[in-house]
Amino acid sequence: MSEASKSFFRELRDFPSVEILAANPIFEKYIEVLSRPVVVDTIKSAIREMKSRFRSNESVGENQLESHIIKELQKLTSLQLTPVINGTGVIIHTNLGRSPLAPDMFKDAVAMITGYSNLEFNLLNGKRGKRGVLVERLLAALCETESGTLVNNNAAALFIIINTLANRKEVLISRGELVQIGGGFKIPEIMTKAGAKLVEIGTTNRTSITDYEEGITDKTRMILKVHRSNFVQKGFVEETPIKDIAELCKKHNIICVNDLGSGLLSFPAEVKIYDEPDIRESVRSGADITCFSGDKLLGSSQAGLIAGTDEYIRKIKKNPLFRTLRCDKISFSIMTQVLSSYLNGTQNEDIPIWKMITIPVTELKERGEAILANVGDKDIVLKATEAFLGGGTTPDKTIPSLALSIRPKMQPNRLAKKFRELPTPIIGRVENEELYLDLRTIPPEKDSYIIDAIMSLVE
User: Fold this and answer.
1) Rg (CA), the chain
2) DSSP 126-156
3) How many CB atoms lie within 10 A of CB 165?
4) Are strands 197-201 and 255-261 parallel, antiparallel or unpaired?
């Protein structure tokens, strides 16, 4: 940069034009990623801000202007969706896209989503067909219930269930289940927006079957049970089982809805995690409707799955709002394969999260030792740690794991930032002044990349 460009502006007319700045080669890489209109708009905004500072008698130079523009463009570029390596030890990481999809399943879906398909076309009679018929059959079979359908996420599922079946009616819910889910969405707000009159029963820590029964009036249409998937209660607590609630609902001819959230079908025998309710247990216990997420423990794409009584599912699908919440062909294609995998009993081999969950620690140890053997005398050790399922599921339960524990000469947060700045960012966690890279959530095929990253970044 020339001496002139380092000098401070003396008048407003000294500021360079948008066109001149946009032509600067230093912005070319940002134009490739963000497009010229977005870069130009960022430049305009930066010029306005710097002129405002200038009017406030603040010294402003061209190098400051360029630096400010680059900083803003870097912020925008960092928002672009990009693959990352998850070294946090959180398997269903909401901030990192929740459950990863199986590459083979996505490859099979490519033909359906990059060209035309029979999404709403009946190949037998050549007429218009219905969307998602096969997925719904698979879902009903898997959940062992009469019928099923899906919308674009579980919050939408809960919304349309209440709006269809309990609009302007009373819906009973325990005070201990008035939870807030990710992104600031609160169950009470979803319920009221869906048209229900929310009736709180019991207390924060204890709700008995008597509390439910005493809360029922002639205006009660539904009892809603919500699984507290992202926190736990301990001590002097009481929670009414879904089976008891379902029996009470049948007695009073009202609807029993169970929002399970996490979407668990069953844990493999080798995974010693208990107390997480599963979908088929809910159905067998008598819940009329059970809803859950597709991209948590089911290991599929984002969706809200609804399983239950055919009468109620039909009503939900006739709701005009159903079209606004429906899934697209990508979700249908992926979900068909995932549900089929469960029905065929191959989910532990087919679905990435179950591969991660069931990897033996001995296998992690072999990988970790191989990595250490390739990074020389870096101050790194293998350390026993605990991985989390994540996604708001079983918050107090962990899975034994192993992590590369890096003891950097620099501040660990600074090293973590350097790992995040790699072409394929590596996301670790800082703990006890060390940077941890948990091997349970790092795919084995990324081990060579981890080695290269360590060699280039760790002193």
Assistant:
1) 27
2) SSB--TTHHHHHHHHHHHTSSEEEEESSHHH
3) 23
4) unpaired
Q: How far is Cα of residue 62 from the mean position of the Cα atoms in its chain?
A: 42
In tens, the pLDDT along 359-382 reads: 999 999 999 999 999 998 899 999
Partnered with residue 90 across adjacent β-strands are: 388
- For 227-262, give one letter per residue: b (16+ CB within 10 A) or e: bbbbeeeeeeeebbebeebbebbeeeebbbbbbbbb
Rounded Cα distance between 200 and 224, Å, is 10
Concatenate the DSSP letters of all residues of 384-403 into one string: EEEEEEETTEEEEEEEEEEE
Assigned token pair, 21:
């700045």
Bridge partners of 93, per DSSP, are 98
The per-residue pLDDT for range 139-161, each reduced to its tens digit, is 999 999 999 999 999 999 999 99
For residue 414, give both structure tokens: 């600074």
Six token digits for residue 254: 């009202």
Looking at residue 88, the DSSP 8-state letter turns out to be: S
Q: Name the token pair of 130.
A: 């219905």
pLDDT tens for each residue of 70-84: 999 999 998 999 999
